Amino acid sequence: MRGLLLIGCFLLFWIGSGVLEDLDRKDLPFQKDQDDIAVLSGYNYMHAVMEDNQFIVLHVYDQHKVLAKSYNDSDLNQLIPSATFKALVKENDGLYLVFEEENSSETKKKLVVGPRGSVTFVPERY
Length: 126
What we know:
Elements: H1 2-25, E1 37-41, E2 44-51, E3 54-61, E4 67-71, H2 73-77, E5 83-91, E6 94-101, E7 106-113, E8 119-121
Antiparallel strand pairs: 1-2, 2-3, 3-4, 5-6, 6-7, 7-8
């Protein structure tokens, strides 16, 4: 009987710590203004600092809520060298980059956080 009580207490402690960790994950590691965009990508946070609906800088925070990397518009231009970065938009809990290609067509790709705070695009599935 004592063993069942001990196992029950252990399970309650384990479940309680998981719930607290999940609640802590929802707290943002930065101050968000009205124009800013905040997205959770896996365990990483992406915070796009916007001013008058113009993109300023993209901060990427790791799972421990520490700033991993920062990207400005010239860094985002290097993700697709043959296109020009136009805008950053939030759709369906995801962060999308809008690029204008050389033939003046627009491309929208979903941005995700890779290893060590690097940003990449979601691979296209055929």
